[in-house]
Design goal:
Elements lengths: L5 E8 L9 H16 L3 E6 L4 H7 L5 E7 L4 H10 L5 E5 L3 H9 L6 H22 L2 E4 L2 H6 L9 E4 L21 E4 L7 H17 L8 E5 L14 E4 L4 H5 L2 E6 L9 H8 L3 E4 L1 H5 L9 E3 L8 H10 L5 H14 L7 H15 L1
Parallel strand pairs: 1-2, 1-3, 3-4, 4-5, 5-6, 7-8, 7-10, 8-9, 10-11, 11-12
């Protein structure tokens, strides 16, 4: 039977839109644009907090909804939608393994202490359990996290890898040849925490080590407003402050450095680098959790065991840009998103399974 009057409801935390350079915004905006272009009845609900009442009011007159909920941090809304629409297709986007990400950001011995961290992690884990129990599908940002975490949680939801791809407004239409670019950059988040500090200080350590070799044609650059961080002084790096034109800036970047082993999910700066034909200097532990298809764009570097600068420069010089991988990631992303569209056999099949489960 053909589906009539299908509405796609997109539930998004308001905080996603607070910083257009933040990973959550870049990740979400590509789905917003995909759905706006393809769905006749697309409804977006922005929520300031995990409060179901406001969402439920928006759903009163919708007869055949399908839902995309951004992130597992909205467990009450997710459960309320499932209770109101027991047969509906509900996809939940996962951006990180949230309990582990929390620990990597703050460590056990943060100012609030280990008991607070244990409580915070247990709450985040419960959120993920609610999502797995109530969603039709979990759309994880990482294939590694799908296999290592989401597939192992109890619950009905099928788990799929929904790759991140760089939004179109950050991709340069006329890229400079990769070999002609001279910047190696670190693009930290604006928030100073355990993970971002480790990312920046390891980059400074790499720059100082490589500057021992006088032949370097590269400039080592750190972006963002970090003046209050209290970073160690170094003549080996330069600071740009906030970048107004990130797309134009990326066209001068040879390599993006992600040298900290901390953090989960898929670093959106990896996708942005690949889309803009830049390579990625990456910690081996982080590289192991990335999709095999993109590893040709990587140079693995552990700043705890740095070797001959000439050898490292040779590795950097050998890696080429891989912008074509962005097109592959985009196609894979769109294929998963098709599950929300009217007539998708996947969402119809999932609804049937959920309805059966509810009755048994």
């Amino acid at each position: 039977m053909p589906e009539l009057d299908v509405t796609v409801v997109h539930v998004i935390p308001e905080s996603v839109f607070s910083n257009t350079y933040h990973g959550s915004y870049k990740d979400t905006i590509s789905r917003v644009r995909f759905l706006q272009e393809r769905v006749e009845d697309y409804r977006q609900i922005r929520v300031p907090e995990d409060e179901p009442a406001a969402v439920m009011r928006e759903l009163v007159e919708i007869r055949s909804p399908r839902f995309l909920i951004e992130y597992s941090l909205l467990p009450r809304i997710t459960a309320a939608i499932r209770e109101r629409h027991p047969d509906a297709f509900i996809a939940v986007r996962s951006h990180n393994i949230e309990p582990f990400q929390h620990l990597d950001n703050h460590g056990w011995w943060s100012k609030r202490g280990p008991l607070w961290n244990a409580y915070a992690c247990s709450r985040l884990f419960r959120h993920d359990l609610v999502a797995k129990r109530n969603a039709s599908e979990i759309w994880s940002i990482s294939d590694w996290e799908t296999a290592a975490y989401w597939d192992r949680l109890p619950g009905r939801a099928e788990c799929r890898w929904l790759p991140y791809h760089c939004p179109a407004h950050l991709v340069n239409d006329d890229p400079t040849e990769h070999s002609q670019r001279t910047r190696i950059v670190c693009l930290p988040t604006a928030s100073k925490n355990r993970k971002s500090w480790d990312l920046v200080t390891r980059f400074i350590r790499l720059a100082e080590h490589l500057k021992q070799n006088g032949r370097s044609r590269y400039e080592f650059v750190i972006t963002g407003d970090l003046q209050d961080w209290g970073l160690p002084a170094s003549d080996s790096v330069s600071y740009t402050g906030m970048i107004d034109d990130l797309c134009g800036f990326m066209n001068s970047v040879n390599s993006v450095a992600l040298l900290s082993p901390l953090g989960f999910g898929f670093k959106t700066t990896i996708g942005d680098a690949i889309a803009n034909n830049a390579s990625v200097l990456i910690h081996p532990k982080l590289a192991r959790r990335c999709p095999p298809m993109i590893k040709n764009a990587f140079v693995s570097i552990d700043t705890e065991m740095l070797g001959d600068p000439a050898v490292i420069f040779d590795q950097i010089d050998r890696v080429e840009g891989h912008a074509k991988l962005d097109r592959q990631l985009r196609a894979m992303n769109n294929d998963v998103l098709q599950g929300l569209l009217p007539g998708s056999p996947r969402s119809v099949m999932t609804q049937g399974v959920i309805a059966t489960n509810e009755r048994t």
